[in-house]
Amino acid sequence: MTPRSSRLSIRHVTGFIYDGFAESSYNEARMTPLSSSRQHVLDASIRTSPIASQLTYLDYFGSAVTAFDLHERHRQLEVTAEALVEVTATERGAAALSLEELRSPTVVDRYSEYLKAGPRTVLPRDLHDELAGETLNQEVDDLAAHVSSFVRDRVAYVSGSTHVTTTAFESWTQKTGVCQDLSHLMISFLRGHGVPARYVSGYLHPVADAAVGETVLGQSHAWVEYFCGEWVGVDPTNGNDIGLHHVVVAKGRDYGDVPPLKGIYHGAPSRALGVTVEITKLA
Length: 283
Known about the structure:
By secondary structure, the chain is α+β, with helices and mostly antiparallel strands. The protein has helices spanning 99-102, 105-110, 125-132, 140-154, 168-174, 179-192, and strands at 5-29, 39-49, 54-58, 64-70, 74-88, 156-157, 176-177, 197-204, 215-217, 219-227, 231-235, 240-241, 246-252, 261-267, 270-272, 276-281.
């Protein structure tokens, strides 16, 4: 019998190391999963070292933000986010809107920010024309599946081949990228066809048949949601729909709206502490 839900414990550690001291810093963490119809956050916390007071709020796109600042000298900033999440399989709602319906003034006005190309997602017109020649008269769901395959067939997933500032066009040109890049490319092509699309960051449990209680090295991951009367998720990196192993953390127009940790500081040069994601299947 196909499972209808999963319960996952997630531990995510990241931060910065300074060559000397940081005198002060102001930070935002988007590392807390969202509760929705498909996932319920049973428990969540964020700890910082050094310890700092926190302010938590929802940003414009509905993502949970933990803001904190430090005013004591520190050589390292470490942020640990832990969450217990239950993910449930959900059914699609009403039939998808047609492309013509998506181009109505009402939809275009409401979802305009998910239809415009930004610096990270802009692509030359001829690339959109190349895809358009293969997708005439497709339904929205079929179009999304085709775009996912189109991107995955032309851009190879190569870990470490790009960085967080890489644009969709740069990734397309070098024909390699990571989940962030494949998501940016898919978003660009969907928007070019008049389909609202947004960037989703989260976690992916990489072992489908993991034993209950087994802790594995998970992944910070990115995928896409497109609007067709409701928001539907698709993972262009793995070529599948969003399932029980995907945990949503934040959503926005592109990666720039959802970085797990960002901020400004005064002090010595810094480098990333690295990222560790551990996921334990509990049910």
